[in-house]
Write a structure and sequence with these properties.
This protein is an alpha/beta fold and 128 residues long. Helix content is 17%, strand content 41%. It is built from two helices and eight strands. β2 and β3 form a beta hairpin.
């Protein structure tokens, strides 16, 4: 019998500027900054978090090829896709793609795509 994975607890992104990243994710995606351990930084959302590694100061162990701008992340929102578009516009965030129908983990969703300050691709989807 193999391991039975139930959910994601956290993942890590490597960033060029921790403060800029925290500000972006708090302002644009409503996440909450937290500190833990030896003054490590993370962003909490729901029951998950994103740990933040400053490039060149990655916490060990870490990804073999940790680098900025290499993540492709999808988050789910309960807002309407129009409300998400309006919020991104008010924050002066360019939508690169969408809205478009996508197939998510549990069904069909409408999504928009944009980038964070390091160029990571961010998808926000709304299940139908």
């Amino acid at each position: 019998m193999g391991i039975s994975v139930e959910q994601i607890d956290h993942f890590v992104i490597t960033v060029s500027n921790t403060d800029r990243t925290i500000t972006f994710y708090e302002r644009v995606l409503g996440m909450s900054a937290i500190s833990f351990g030896d003054n490590r930084k993370a962003l909490r959302f729901g029951t998950q978090k994103i740990n933040i590694h400053q490039v060149g100061q990655e916490v060990q162990p870490n990804a073999l090829n940790a680098a900025t701008g290499t993540a492709d992340l999808c988050f789910i929102s309960k807002l309407s896709i129009k409300e998400i578009q309006n919020h991104l516009q008010s924050e002066q965030i360019d939508i690169e793609y969408g809205p478009i129908e996508q197939s998510g983990a549990v069904g069909i969703m409408d999504s928009v795509y944009f980038r964070d300050p390091d160029g990571n691709l961010i998808e926000v989807g709304v299940y139908r």
